[in-house]
Amino acid sequence: MLARVYLGAHYPTDTVGSIIATPAAAYLGVSLGRLRGLGVPALRAANRRRARTAAPPATTDVKILLLHANGMGGTIRAVYNLAGDLAADHDVEIVSIVRTRPEPFFEVPEGVRITYLDDRVGRRPARFPALAPLWRSRLMPREEAAYATFTLRTDLKLARFLRGLRGGVLITTRPGLNLATALLAPPGVITIAQEHVGLAAHKPPIRKLIKRRYGRLGALVTLTEADLDAYRDALGERAPARLLRIPNAITPLTGGPSPLDTPAVLAVGRLTRVKGFDLLIAAWERVVADHPGWKLRIVGAGRQQAMLAAAIEKRGLSGSVELPGRRADIGAELDHASIFALSSRHEGFSMTIVEALSKGVPVVSFDCPHGPREILTPGCDGLLVPAGDTAAMAEALGGLIRDENRRRAMGAKALQTARRYDGALIGARWRKLLEDLGRSTRWDGLAR
């Protein structure tokens, strides 16, 4: 029984052998050595037993699995929006793999609970760093972008959580979690994977695992039509029974439409390479030479903050570029912006574009894969320029700075575009998916 405390599930398992270890823990155990081939057969056998007693599909209980619910980012905002909408008529819980900040950065929607599998707040650093490789994750592929966040500890807690589920809906939100759920979720659970990053952005080993495992899921939801087509082509007959696009909903922001009377360009996001703020700063050097009264404000925090600050200083832009850090009230930031800039190298969707449109702020964006081109209508509510082309970005920003009438016309169109992403409309599409899955799900687990 001592082993079950650390390796077991939330609930009593239905096999004699699980007194010592659950099938999920057995899978992890054999994955550490030369017996990896025994893990999946053990899970299949356990799933066949579970399927015989699984209750009919139920969609009233919804759990959404996130990496870190207390962080800042578009995926987290999108999950909070979805959870808040579904909480009106479902029991909704956000399950966070880790807790690294004491409190959530975003306001938790009414009626939504948050739980944490691995609470790291206040935990002392490892005493023997040289032994760290022994504690690396075995459940997550090393090519998972957040692999460094996962450990053997999170593997066991995640396996315990997944195998302990008894019915309901589980929505997962990144490739590593989608793959783990496809492998370990038992019969009786309706599984829905969300892809917040385009398929092409995943490394080849991740794409190989996606092709192998995603067909075991109940549904796969993409944010763009381009990504939906990519998954259809990649998965073929191995695709889940439900493969569809549901974009993210608008984040409710404070205030009304921006007055568009402040000489400022706003950018928002994590300060990481993928967001391309180094490119935006390079473009801004050209812009401010012709429009010295304007400022660029880059809101967010992340690993590249020091590097970006150094680039600003080196280019002599300290008086026109600001890095204020994290800000919870993005609505207030947009109130003091006349243009929104997106400089990402790739975007699964871009919540920030939709938020800018909802405040009537025209957008200038790189035409990166795939989100911006599906949200914006160039020349109507914003402008698209070739991905990575800083000269084109500078020219587009400068053009809107010079033409106030065009900015305001685009801002009016932006408000119309934003209505397509109204929370009630997006929520209705999720409810339809849950209803369909509740009627048609079969409990065949890993037998496929």
TrEMBL record:
Matches recorded under Pfam families: Glycos_transf_1 (PF00534)
Keywords: Transferase
Organism the protein comes from: Sphaerisporangium album
Record bears the keyword Transferase: yes
Record-level Gene Ontology MF annotations: transferase activity
UniProt keyword annotation of Kinase present: no
Glycosyl transferase family domain sequence ranges: 259-414
Protein's recorded name: Glycosyltransferase
Membrane-crossing segments per the record: none
